[in-house]
Every structure is written in structure tokens, then in C-alpha cells.
């Protein structure tokens, strides 16, 4: 059976697959453009998006805002006229509103926003054509967010991304809930669908719900469609493609990962994060505070107390993508150990979407 059509307003990707945003520097123009060209939705991560920009060390915000335009343009060139490209912007980011406004200005097709609830996103996007989606991990979060958007802005989400505990990167769960069984998350997913249905009724429109976190193959995709999903968001599998923007050393960490190498770590953002065990994660177990070399004000003050954080998240994510993966934070999803070989985006998309 072919996979059902995903429709987000006037956006109709050939395949109902979103490549999840991966910061820092893992999903930039090259990966997002290739995914969009192959018929999925390509997502560029805004997290320190300008880290390779000559101005980044002196003026990180300026460099990041400039890079939003250049990465988007590049991704669209790769993607071609039909390609759908958007951005992932984490709520915890300092100057969040400036990032959103810039993405809207450059004409982003979609903005997906998590690591907190994007309460103000509708007012920042206004009447622009950019489609917006929150990332939620529970029915409670979905309810709070959608109710607030309906009351405050008389609008609803264009789609919703539900991220389960097997996802890579920051997780919207308490540390002890990150080991939740897949069946438990399937149940929560049903509750989220019910919450979303309330707003489908109120706004008389379909709100596609996308599942993310540990989706590995076509069997998984079919499973989430059976549960009522309209699409999936996948990230880890896209890391080990030639087009992924991360360096070879990063991709090698993925290829060498065993199941026992996947850990849930504490992030300075105040959320748990799923990552690969390495020299850095071992260091965090014995050092309460790894001194910060340079603060780039990446997180808002309520998310980062510079004096008490265990380590600087930007510094560690940057190490990971600048050929020091052993000494940096390498985020990865819970199924990473099943990835055995390097591939390309078209090959991966074909594997995931071909009729079975
Ligand atoms: C290396 C890496 C970096 C990530 N960075 C972000 C990010 O910047 N913002 C975000 O919302 N999610 C981030 N995520 C989560 C993904 O977008 C995605 O939802 C999740 O990893 C899906 O699970 P999977 O990797 O098992 O497919 C990241 C995931 C990985 C693996």
C-alpha cells in the first residue's frame, strides 16, 4: 500500500516524511534540500545556524540571522520548485522571536518549534504563509498549547509533531519517564489525537499529527499510520547519509554505536537529552561544572544560569560537529544502533516509501 498523502494546507509533499531539525550544524541546507528534493519535508535547524560564518565569534546573533537566509536559499535551490523546506526553532533559544521573524521573512514553508511550548508563535508569524507546528510529548502539553492558541489568537496549529521518548536530542519527559515502553507512548499518542480532534472540530479543518522518535523503517511508519498519524518525523537515520551536513567523524560515531552506547543525559536547558556515550558524557558524571570557554548567549536566561550549568551546550554541540565528537555532545535517537551503513537521501527515502 502506498503511504497516504500528507496535506498541510496548500503543502502536499510527495511523501509524508519530515526530516527532523538537528542542531548544531547537522541539518542545514544540504540535508534539508536533499530531503525536500526527494519528496519529504526538509528541516534546517536554527540552533547556532551561522557557526561557520566569519562573524560568528564576534556577533553570533547577527551571523545566525544572516545564515537563515543563505541556508534557506541554498536548500531551496537544491530542492527545486516543488521542494518544501522549513526551520526548527527551539523555544529555549535566546531571542527566539528574532529567529521566528527572520524565518518568516525569508519565506519559510514551515516552522516547527519545541523544547518548551511555543505559546507566542502565532503572533510572531501573523498572517504569513509559513505553516506552524508545536512539538509536544503529552496530551497535557497539547491541550495547554492548543487551548491557549485558540483563546488568545483564534487560530490553531497547521500540524502537530508528537515526540516520543525514543527521540534524539532534548526530550519533553521527566528523566525517569524517558525509559517509557513504546506501548505506553502509543497510548499517550491516542490521547493526544483526541485533544487535537477538539480543535479540528472547533476550526473545521484537519490538523495532521506527525509522530517522531525511534521511527526506523517502513514497519514503524505503517504502525504510526495505523494509530492515526498523518506522517512521521525522522532524524537519526538521516544523519548517516552523504548529504547530511555533519562531518564524517560524527557519522562514524553513529555507525559504530551499539545499543549500550545510547544514554539519557542532563542538558543545561533543564531537560533530559538522548545522546551517544563518549569521553564528554563520561566527564559529566564526575565533573559537576565543566568550565565555559566562551558564552554566546545561546539560551535565554531562564533556561541557562551560567554559574550553575553542568556544561555549555553550544560549546559541546560545536565540538561534536567540528571533528571532536569524543569531546562533544552527539545527540542520537534510541534506535541509532540499528543503523549499519552509510546511504544517500534518495536511497533512504525509497527504502521508506516504496510500496510493500
Ligand atoms: C543530532 C540530533 C539533533 C537534534 N536537534 C534538534 C533540535 O535542534 N531541535 C529539535 O526540536 N529537535 C532536535 N532533534 C530531534 C529530532 O528533530 C527528531 O524529532 C528526533 O530525533 C526523532 O527521533 P529519531 O532520531 O529516532 O528519528 C535532534 C535529534 C538529533 C538526532
TrEMBL record:
Keywords: Flavoprotein, FMN, Oxidoreductase. SUPFAM superfamilies: Inosine monophosphate dehydrogenase (IMPDH). The keyword Heme does not apply. The keyword Membrane does not apply. Pfam families: NMO. Transmembrane segments: none annotated. Nitronate monooxygenase that uses molecular oxygen to catalyze the oxidative denitrification of alkyl nitronates. Acts on propionate 3-nitronate (P3N), the presumed physiological substrate. Probably functions in the detoxification of P3N, a metabolic poison produced by plants and fungi as a defense mechanism. PANTHER family: 2-NITROPROPANE DIOXYGENASE. This is Probable nitronate monooxygenase. It comes from Enterococcus diestrammenae.
